[in-house]
Amino acid sequence: MDDFILFLKLAFDHVLDWNAYDHILFFIVLAVVYHFKDWKKTLWLITLFTLGHTVTLALATFDIVSVSSKLIEFLIPLTIFITAAVNIFTVKKKKFHQSNVNLFFAFFFGLIHGLGLSGFLKMVLIDSENKTLPILEFAFGVELAQTLIVLLILIAGFVAVNLLKIAKRDWVLVLSSIVIGIVIPMLFERKFW
């Protein structure tokens, strides 16, 4: 049970770390387009990201896949930028939040984000005989932490749209634009060439 709590805490620390806020930014731009009534789709969003994240995390931890950490550190803010840009360019469509594009982004970009953490997890598990259970425990923690982030984003969106009467379109545009403004410097800082 102590190991389960340890890996749960590691996952929460990873996802909710204010010094490495890429997870939070990514989930802001993934979830900003949804409403509470879209709860099933947002659960899929979280689960698909966790699945992608876990697949590559496991592959890298077991030394099946190896990708340059500099490349991954660049690709992570790029995935955030792309998701935010898609939000901005599709927000004018009437039913933009019903698109499955963000579900694809959640899984595919989750694969990239999982590689970003593999070095850390390999160090934590270096003397461990069983790596599978800790990876699954970590994935469960990631799922819970991401659910919390998405819930907070949905609450903020509800307040903005229903109480403050901000148009949903404007809410999506503003948050996506703010995130783009944050990740552009990250892209230049992390360029790998």
Polypeptide structure, described:
Helices cover about 75% and strands about 0% of the residues. With about 190 residues, the protein is mainly alpha-helical. Helix 3 runs antiparallel to helix 6. The radius of gyration is 17 Å and the shape is globular. The protein has one domain. The mean pLDDT is about 90. It contains 7 helices and no strands.
Q: Give the tally of structural domains.
A: 1
What integer is the average pLDDT?
89
* Quaternary structure of the protein: single chain
As a percent range, the share of helical residues equals over 70%
Task: Compile the SSE list and pairings.
Elements: H1 2-15, H2 22-31, H3 39-61, H4 69-90, H5 101-124, H6 132-163, H7 168-189
Helix pairs in contact: 1-6, 2-4, 2-6, 3-5, 3-6, 4-5, 4-7
Provide a concise account of the structure shown.
By secondary structure, the chain is mainly α.
